[in-house]
Design a protein that fits this description.
Length: about 210
């Protein structure tokens, strides 16, 4: 299988339960909820994405002709040492490309594998951490994992219904939009009203990390 990667880089995880952790970010190209073209945003299933996942022209991006070749690139980005290796596989939608061969290749190089998905495709087996971020109006089939991250506010999603899904942590994240202050207030209000939810912020944007 050939893997299309938009970008790959070493950074600190900026959000969620693993915020602050050193990690290689592996961003796959492509998504099943939006083409990535601004002309298509208004009719997309996900209309608020803040990520460029189109093409393979980002730093560390490209096409990799084997799982081992891609895992070797991730290892090179991590650098020396084997302790606490973490790769965060994201997109776009990583489950379009992430497969058992790549999971095995990354594990073989000592990495814990965290993935961030919209949940509309089943997660590949063998992940060490799974974050699902549901989008209103989509059919979420992956209703279990480690972390559910709800971007808020979203019309058409009931947080009370999500609380019945099988996740270890329930996080609410303010939507990155033109109405940022209102989104932050709404996210805080949700966490205050429903104790199962914990507020998470995109700290990498605050400190200027990619």
């Amino acid at each position: 299988m050939t893997y299309a990667v938009k970008e790959a880089f070493l950074t600190l995880q900026g959000e969620g339960m693993q915020a602050g952790s050193r990690a290689v970010f592996l961003r796959f190209a492509g998504c099943n909820l939006w083409s990535g073209r601004e002309a298509d945003r208004a009719t997309a299933q996900c209309r608020f994405c803040d990520t460029d996942f189109v093409g393979t022209d980002g730093a560390g991006g490209g096409k990799f002709d084997s799982a081992d070749a891609l895992a070797a690139e991730v290892e090179a980005l991590w650098g020396n040492g084997r302790e606490d290796r973490l790769v965060v596989v994201t997109g776009g939608e990583p489950m379009l490309q992430l497969d058992e061969a790549l999971v095995d290749a990354l594990h073989g190089r000592g990495f814990r594998i965290a993935a961030e998905s919209n949940g509309t495709l089943p997660a590949v087996a063998g992940l060490d951490w799974l974050c699902v971020s549901p989008k209103a109006g989509t059919d979420v089939v992956q209703r279990s994992g480690d972390e559910l991250k709800l971007v808020w506010p979203q019309a058409g999603i009931d947080p009370a219904e999500l609380e019945g899904w099988d996740f270890g942590h329930f996080l609410v994240q303010p939507m990155d939009c033109t109405e940022r202050e209102a989104a932050l207030e709404a996210a805080i209000a949700l966490a205050m009203e429903r104790p199962k939810w914990r507020l998470t912020l995109q700290a990498h944007k605050v400190v200027g990390l990619p």
